[in-house]
Amino acid sequence: MLSGLLIVLLPLFLGYLVRVRSTRLLNLINRAVSGSVYLILLFMGVSLAGLENLGSQLSRLGGNALLLFSITTLFNLAALWWLSRRVRLSAGGSPVVKDAPTSKLAAMQGSLLLVGVVAAGVTMGLLLGPIVGEALFTTADWLAEWVLYLLLVLIGCQLRNSGMPLKQILLNRLGLAIAVTLAVSSLLAGLLAAPLLALSWNEGLAMASGFGWYSLSAILIGDQLGPLMGGVAFFNDLTRELLAFILIPLVIHRHTALAIGYGGATSMDFTLPVIQQHGGVACVPIAVVSGFILSLLSPPLILFFLSLSG
Q: Which residues cross the membrane (predicted)?
């Protein structure tokens, strides 16, 4: 039952063992992670094009993604609002940000580009499918799986060399509290959403364990449950990030923990400039710790819950 979990966690563990001291090599690893994500999402789009009754399947994908997103957001916002009422945390300080995005559209550009990559894969599959045949979709699935293994090695290496020591994580109680609140409320939402999505309880938990890390959740879910559910996971977590860009400036001064926490795993990277820009430098270490913990939890939780399918 756990063999699939071990096979996918092994490259993540091997990557975590690698200590990198060269800044140039770390930059190369970061670019390789981005490239791998684009490749896998492209292959996921090709696989989506191979589904029978594509139009109705895409309609189902959108409906399921909206349902999961709505339930998860309701649970997350309620839990984070409760937490923000009970912890002493307020935005403030200098909002100086180096290379911060100048508009919400600029901040969302990377997220929207990933949607374009999936759409490009679907288009490629529709154009080449009648020519190449079923071999196109089989090859896309095979390539996506092997690029996934490479990506997990690189992500493990990134986490090891992120400059975030375990002591610093454990001592930042606010970041830890935000991460735990977001994770628990997401999992409860996954349990509630599972029967509504015609999924088993463990599959619902897996779908809710992306915590905003849309590129990885789409890849891991798609590898186990097929491209349709991979697409649901992708758009569920991507929409979280897009809403976070809008939500953070509106609530960070009144409900700081909610603003930091809702971005999930992205609070340590994509939504961090927006948090710093509107909340000040005091919010940065809390956001980084929260995002790091959720990034560390997401892959093993997704794989563990999926492994329970038998």
A: 6-22, 29-51, 63-83, 112-131, 143-162, 174-199, 211-235, 242-264, 284-306
Non-local CB neighbours of 159 within 8 Å, separated by 6+ positions: 15, 16, 292, 295, 296
Q: Is 254 helix (H, G, I), strand (E, B) or coil?
A: coil
- Residues 286, 198: Cα–Cα separation, whole Å: 37
Measured distance CA(292)–CA(100) in Å, rounded? 20
121 touches 128 (CB < 8 A): no
Rounded to whole angstroms, the Cα distance separating 291 from 275 reads: 12
| Residue in 233, 214, 258 with CA at minimum distance from that of residue 86 | 258
The two structure tokens encoding residue 245: 């860009």
pLDDT score, position 83: 93
Q: What percent of the chain has a predicted confidence (pLDDT) above 70?
A: 86
Q: 53: alpha, beta or left, given left = phi > 0 and alpha = psi -120 to 50?
A: left
How would residue 75 be classed by pLDDT, with cut points 50, 70 and 90?
Answer: very high
Poorest-pLDDT segment among 52-61, 128-137, 289-298: 52-61
Express each pLDDT in 138-149 by its tens digit: 888 888 778 878
pLDDT digits (tens, 9 = 90+) for 169-179: 667 789 999 99
State the greatest distance between any 2 C-alpha atoms of the chain, in Å, as a whole number: 62
Look up tokens 């190449």; give the residue: 132
> Got the DSSP string for 24-40?
HHHHHHHHHHHHHHHHH
Cβ contact 263:236 at 8 Å: no
The predicted model scores a pTM of 0.76
- The answer to whether residues 208 and 186 touch, using CB atoms and an 8 Å cutoff, is yes
Output the CA angle 100-104-109, nearest 5 degrees. 85
Angstrom distance (rounded) from CA 303 to CA 190? 15
User: CA–CA separation, 310 vs 305, rounded Å?
Assistant: 10
Would you say 179 and 293 are in contact if contact means Cβ atoms under 8 Å apart? Answer: yes
Residues ≥6 apart with Cβ < 8 Å to 74: 189
